[in-house]
Design a protein that fits this description.
Radius of gyration: 20 Å
CATH topology of the largest domain: Rossmann fold
Strand content: 15-25%
Low-confidence stretches: 174-178
Order of helices and strands: EEEHEHEHEHHHHEHEH
Number of helices: 9
Number of domains: 2
Helix content: 25-40%
CATH class of the largest domain: Alpha Beta
Length: 257
Amino acid sequence: MSRRHLTFPCEGSTLVGTLDGASGMTGLLLVSGGNELRSGAWAGQAQFAARIAAEGFPTFRFDRRGVGDSDGPNREFKASGPDLAAALAAFRRAAPQVERVIALGNCDAASALMLARGANCDGLILSNPWTIEETEAAPPPDVIRAHYRRRLANPEAFKRLLTGKVSLRQLAGSLFAATKPPPPPSSLAQHMAAGLEAFGGQVAILIAERDRTAQAFLSAWNKDDPRIRRCAGASHSYVEPDAREWLEAQVLEVLKR
């Protein structure tokens, strides 16, 4: 396995990417969420790329415009289609033996891939897609109910209630909100669904069951979608050892198909 850094153009800007080389003809394109660097938090994405490449799958990750080592304006995930296209082209140039590319995105990186109709990749692994229109919006009722199910299973929560450390007014407001019907899907969720419907390749949707972003996604999505795979006890970035192993196994399974 080898690792090398390279630059490539995107609409007049220069983007920076990293290729973990391998001999396989199926490759993984890692798309960072939010404004996260291609290395990931605590170099987690770099380590993940190395493990996937060690299994024989070339892995490419990059910084979007205006993020990390890449220059240009940061247009956020909704306008990152050109960045995805440029990264895919750079990946294919750097690893010409690759015939099939699977893209993996977590949070709004998954949303970006859906909005871009798969960005000309051959398959998608969409983890905890972001469907919330406004960061200040209240959590959907499904998310509130999931939160209180976890709290009720924790004896410490009862102790806090009995000792007056929980605001009864706030608790009553949250419980009332949990009884409301789910809101209609946001326009973002509808656009994501339309984009995914236009994509003809392989799709896996990964859900970390403890993650509020994932719970919000499920409240706006068909929960019976056969492409959904759930990881019990996992948080947003799969930092738990069991969740990390589960994520890697899911990715390798898709790559080996």
